[in-house]
Amino acid sequence: MHERERHRLILKLVSEQGLARVGQLAEALGVSEPTVRRDLNRLAGLNLLRKVRGGAEAMTQRMPQEIAGRPFAVSQSINTEKKRRIARKAVQLCRDGEAIIINGGTTTYMMAEFLHDRQLQILTNSFAMAERLLAGSANRVIVPGGEIYREQSIILSPFDNDTTQNHYASKMFMGAQGLAPPGLIEVDPLLIRAEQKLINQADQLIVLVDSTKFRQRAGLILCPLERIHTVITDDEVEPAAVKMLEAAGVEVIIAEAEERSSTAA
């Protein structure tokens, strides 16, 4: 098993269980205990987990397994209509000729439906989105080098000097596992490292989250609220969540239900 795959599985097991022993990890991965100890030293040095006597523990409280390990196809079927409305609003912020970044995720993936007649330069680490854009649009599509992270259909690179730093964009669109007063919340440390590299390459960070994401509290902080320029969410968002964002200087755009929008018109 490749080192990077071992690291991903170790982080997933530690995140799901909160605490994992060396012997348990070695058995689960089918490798020796000395190999696991070397991996734990490496991951602890990157602040992705905390070493304890005989094993390792997660940096934050344990995440529910149905959240931490939810595949892309499953997430895609949840809150579909809300995500579609949010994605449409996101595309309305784009101007032809712009260079943008779209991070992998089920809500951002739905932007592809509304990008078919646009003329943009799009850097995306979403393998699924790249395929869809190439097949159904005239946009220029760029993907970073790396390995496909199967569960989320995302391209991840183990190297710092991938193609990401060669591209700069006016806007980056991304989703998240949660949004809370400390900032954007994610649950996978390897995804966070990739996302932070992308965030550094954009002027504006635009976050696409449905209203349920404001209930998610446990996880790792990807970036503070102050780094976010705009949040697009649905019309079931609670007023307290909107007030939290606006107090941090974040613009909030509400994607209303179509019938509600037409009635207002």
**How can the largest sheet be summarized?**
7 strands, parallel
Number of helices: 11
> What share of the residues lie within helices?
25-40%
Secondary-structure class: alpha/beta
Number of strands: 15
Tally of domains: 2
User: What's the overall average pLDDT, rounded?
Assistant: 85
**Arrangement of strands in the largest sheet:** 6-5-4-9-12-14-15
Our Rg estimate from Cα atoms comes to 19 Å
Q: First CA to last CA: what distance?
A: 58 Å
Features:
Rossmann fold; three-stranded antiparallel β-sheet; 265 residues; 15 strands; seven-stranded parallel β-sheet; 2 domains; Arc Repressor Mutant, subunit A; disordered C terminus; single chain; alpha/beta
Give a structural overview.
Helix content is 37%, strand content 23%. The longest helix is centred in the first third of the chain and has 15 residues. It has 11 helices and 15 strands. The C terminus is likely disordered. The protein has 2 domains: 57 residues, Arc Repressor Mutant, subunit A, CATH 1.10.10; 193 residues, Rossmann fold (3-Layer(aba) Sandwich). The relative contact order is 0.12. A hairpin with a 2-residue loop joins strand 10 and strand 11.
